Description:
By secondary structure, the chain is mainly beta. The protein has one helix at about 10-25; strands at about 5, 30-40, 45-50, 60-65, 70-75, 80, 85-90, 100-105, 110-115, 115-120, 125-129. The strands form 2 sheets. A 7-stranded mixed sheet has the order 1-11-10-4-3-2-6, with helices on one face. Strands 5-9-8-7 form a 4-stranded antiparallel sheet. It is globular.
Amino acid sequence: MKILITIQENTKMNSILHINKLLSEYRTILEYSILLRDFSERDIWDITLVIQKNKNSNDRITLLLRDFTNLQIQSPNANLAQMIQIDDERESQLENIHYYVSDIEDGGISCYCREVSVCLNGEKLFEIL
């Protein structure tokens, strides 16, 4: 059974907390990819992170960060142990920036983005716009 939850404005904060709780169980970044999605006046870039629960598990979360900016990666190597968290930045009213995604333990990776999608083992669970 596939369950897709598109987050509405009034429930975004609770949903971000739920996503962060789920992400706290997935600690090893297996791979990441960066894609230029739109060649318009303002290039639009997406990043995909594939995160594994632990080295002995097949459970994986795919985190799609659409329209990202200011990407910081300390190491280009995959298999990084991370504690990824999403913070709501919409009150900052910066153009095309709604969320801040970062490794809250060592700062190994961080960026700002407009949208976040979360898939668990290939099934989309959350989409926050």
